[in-house]
Amino acid sequence: MVKVWELYEKGDWVIPFLIFSISLFVGASIILYLIIIWSRNKKIKRARLRTEYSLLIEKMMSAVVFENVAFSVVKEDKEVGVLFKNNFFRETVMETIINLHKNYDGVYAQKLEQFYKDSGLINDSFKRLKNLSWEIKCKGITELSEFNITEAFEKIITFSKKKKKTLKITAINAGIKLAGTKGIVNLVEHPDPIDDWTQVNIIGAFKKHDIGDTKGVELLLESKNTTVVTLGLKLIKELKLTQKVSYVAQLVEKAPNTAIKYEAQNVLQSLTV
What is the sign, positive or negative, of the torsion defined by CA atoms of 162, 167, 169, 173? Predict the structure, then answer.
C-alpha cells in the first residue's frame, strides 16, 4: 500500500494515463462515427430498395388479387423467385399484404390469405414466435391472427400467460380474433392479476371483432382470481349479455368478497333495468 502511495505522489503515472485516456476517447469516437455512418447508409439503402420493391410488389399483388394469378405462377418469374429468398423483400411483401388484407374482405381477403400460405410467409410468422425478442414474437402473433391462421391458436394463447404486458395483450387479442371466447376461457386458471389496462384491451378486442358467440364468458365468473371475475363482469356489462343474468345473480349469492358482490349487483341492475 505504501509503494502505491509513493508512485501516486511521484506523478509518473499521469502522462501515460492521459495518453491512454485520450487514445481511448479518440478510438471510441471513431468507432461511434463509423457505426453512425453504417447505420445511416443501411437506412438509405433500405429506403431505396423499398421503393424499388414496392413497384414490383404492387404489380404482383394486383395480379394475385384481381387477375386470379396463383403464387406458383408468380414465382416462375426469375426475378421474383430470386427476390423471395431475400429477407428484406419478404418483409416488404408481408407489410404490403397486411395493409391490403385490412382493407379488403370477402374473396379478395381470401386470395391474400392463400398467397400468405403459398408463398411461405406463414412460415416466417411461425419462426417469429420462437424468437427471444418479445417485440418480434408480437409481430408474428399479429401476422398470424391477421390472416386468420386458426391452427396457430394453441401456440399463440400460451403467450397470454407471459409476464410481459404487451406480449400478453397481443396474444389474448389474437386469440379472441381467432377463436372468440375460447381465447379468454383459459384465463379462468390464470394465476396473476389482470390489470385494468389489459382488461380494457380484451373488451376492446371483443367489440372490434364483433364476436357473436359469447358462450364461455360466464366461466370467468367462477375463477378464483378476482381480477378474472371482474373481467367477466365487465364483459357481460359492456357487451350487454342479458342471457348471462342468471350467472351474475349466482355470483351475487356466492361472491368471494364484498367488492365483487357489489360489482355483480351493479351489473345485474344495469342488465335488468
Answer: negative
Long-range contacts formed by 257-261: CB under 8 A, 24+ apart: 257/226, 259/226, 260/226, 260/229, 260/230, 260/233
At residue 96, the pLDDT reads 93
pLDDT at res. 9: 57
Under a CB-based contact definition with an 8 Å cutoff, are residues 267 and 237 in contact?
yes
Contact partners, residue 138, CB within 8 Å, separation at least 6: 166, 167, 170
Count Cβ neighbours within 10 Å for each residue of 150-175 and write b for 16 or more, e otherwise: eebbebbbebbbeeeeebbbbbbbbb
**How many Å is the Cα radius of gyration of the chain?**
28
Closest to 74 in 3D by CA, of 120, 122, 121, 119: 119
CA angle 199, 200, 205 (to 5 degrees): 95
pLDDT of the residue at 6: 57
* Mean pLDDT, range 133-141, rounded to an integer: 94
> CA dihedral defined by 34, 39, 40, 46, rounded to 10 degrees?
140
Q: Whose CA is closest to 144, among 117, 105, 108? A: 117
pLDDT digits (tens, 9 = 90+) for 91-112: 999 999 999 998 888 899 999 9
147: Cβ–Cβ under 8 A, 6 or more apart, which residues? 101, 112, 113, 116, 117, 122
What's the full length of the chain, in residues? 273
Q: Which three cell numbers stand for residue 53?
A: 420493391
pLDDT for 200 equals: 86
> Which letter does DSSP use for residue 101 in this model?
H
Looking at every residue in the chain, the average pLDDT score rounds to 85
